Amino acid sequence: MTSGPGKLALKTFTGHKRITVDYQSTNKHIVNVRRAFLETIDLSTSRARQANHVLSQAAYRMQYANNFSALTRTAISPRVYAANANYSLLRHRATLMPLDHTLTGHSGKVMAAKFLGEPTKVISGSHDRTLKIWDLRSRMCTETKFAGSSCNDLVTSDGAGSTIISGHFDKRIRFWDIRTEMSANHIMLQGKVTSLDLSRDSNYLLACVRDDTIQLIDLRMNNIVRSFSHESFKVGCDWSRAAFGPGGRLLSVGAADGAAYVWNTHSGRLEAVLKDHTSAVTAVSWHPQSGLLASVDRGKRAVIWGDL
């Protein structure tokens, strides 16, 4: 197990409040969301490329759509969706960051948003205990699903976007078929679900849970196949984000002690405890093709880690 302050830290960024992080599809940049800005950071120079004052509240999740031409039918560039605390979804062109859409309709904080198979549909999850499906052409909500509990994160588990998986405050992971109103089934855990992540082959689901565990679920059987925990690992907040590594062999999650923990999903072994933060680490994101890992904390700091 690798441990120790700064051992693998390659770059650090500071000065951002309430940040989350994701790697852009070009692999050369990360997008960093602070309280009122979406910001793209060039990893080669460690400098911000764009920063737009577009968010009135903190942002919790974002997602890229790699096929921008399918969204705009004219340009070729990624787009990004941000779910924020102002009860709305915001869509941006990642190269220039103009605001395209503001989709309003939730009555609580919007915690997650994902594209639904096709580039004209998005699903969002909120603390108003609903999931909403949006048509980007009409900019209207086309369907509302009533979950009965605040939604903290969601994923879509097939290419068509017909199956939705959502994680909730009532300790349940719910499975939805968009062709029906009610959830098909659910899995009960031992704590609030703070985040979900799907493996690339869509066979496994990663759930970060407020009982200070990470649960690995085999979606082919809907069973928990492995649980990850450590005596020093404590989930830092209700929206802490865990993530699979690019090949699915590793997972990472931030902790209340200011470290990013890395486990081997095959053996269950704790591979590394990465210490360079001084406050709770709230989100992590892996480089899509390498072992680089980005982590951010509640103290305005982002760190890029290597050699994992």
Helix content: under 10%
Strand order of the largest sheet: 1-28-27-26
The total of helices stands at: 1
Q: Averaging pLDDT over every residue, what do you get?
A: 78
Low-confidence stretches: 29-38, 52-59, 66-82, 92-97
What portion of residues belong to β-strands? over 45%
- Estimated structural class: mainly beta
What oligomeric state do the depicted chains represent? single chain
List the helices and strands in order: EEEEEEHEEEEEEEEEEEEEEEEEEEEEE
Overall radius of gyration: 18 Å
The rounded distance between the terminal residues' Cα atoms is 11 Å
What does the main sheet amount to?
A: 4 strands, antiparallel
Shape: globular
Number of β-strand runs: 28
What does this structure look like?
The longest helix is centred in the N-terminal third of the chain and has 5 residues, at 68-72. It contains one helix and 28 strands. The chain has one helix at 68-72, and strands at 9-14, 20-23, 29-34, 37-42, 47-53, 59-65, 79-84, 88-93, 99-104, 110-116, 118-126, 130-135, 140-146, 151-156, 163-168, 172-177, 183-188, 193-198, 204-209, 213-218, 223-228, 242-244, 250-254, 259-264, 270-275, 281-286, 293-297, 301-305. The chain is 2% helix and 54% strand. The radius of gyration is 18 Å and the shape is globular. The model is unreliable at 29-38, 52-59, 66-82 and 92-97 (pLDDT under 50). Strands 1-28-27-26 form a four-stranded antiparallel beta sheet, with no helix packed on it. It has a four-stranded antiparallel beta sheet with strand order 2-3-4-5, with no helix packed on it. A four-stranded antiparallel beta sheet has the order 6-7-8-9, with no helix packed on it. It has 308 residues and is mainly beta. One of its GO terms (molecular function) is protein-membrane adaptor activity. WD repeats lie at residues 103-144, 274-305.
